[in-house]
Write a structure and sequence with these properties.
The chain contains five helices and no strands. The chain is mainly α and 119 residues long.
């Protein structure tokens, strides 16, 4: 549930501060920034709903994991920096990898539960 809350909060923030995030998306070099931002909001909302309802849970978790994984390389490119800024970005990068791992763990747990139900 907390994982879903994180994505819902992010989608709300992006929606409320569209122009700020559009500018940030553009600065990060993400292609088609307006479309990418709209898709990010959709992925975050739909993925969160799917997590909360367990509807197509493996697909939703994989979609969110891929989304976080890819964006991690655009937003937290610590390898291009040095000093304190690099350290901060590296920590954020690693936190996001932990989120990806958590989402992938949802898939494994879901599959295990399904296998136990069939036994």
């Amino acid at each position: 549930m907390l994982m879903a809350v994180m994505f819902i909060e992010s989608a709300i923030d992006k929606s409320l501060h569209w122009h700020f995030y559009l500018q940030e998306t553009t600065q990060q070099g993400i292609p088609f920034p307006a479309l990418a931002l709209a898709m990010a909001i959709a992925v975050e909302v739909l993925g969160s709903i799917a997590l909360l309802t367990r509807f197509q849970l493996p697909l939703a978790a994989l979609m969110l994991a891929g989304y976080v994984f890819v964006l991690n390389f655009f937003y937290f490119d610590f390898w291009n920096l040095s000093g304190q800024e690099a350290i901060g970005l590296r920590k954020e990068f690693l936190k996001n990898l932990a989120v990806v791992a958590g989402l992938l763990a949802f898939i494994l747990v879901h599959r295990r539960d399904q296998q136990q139900d069939t036994i």
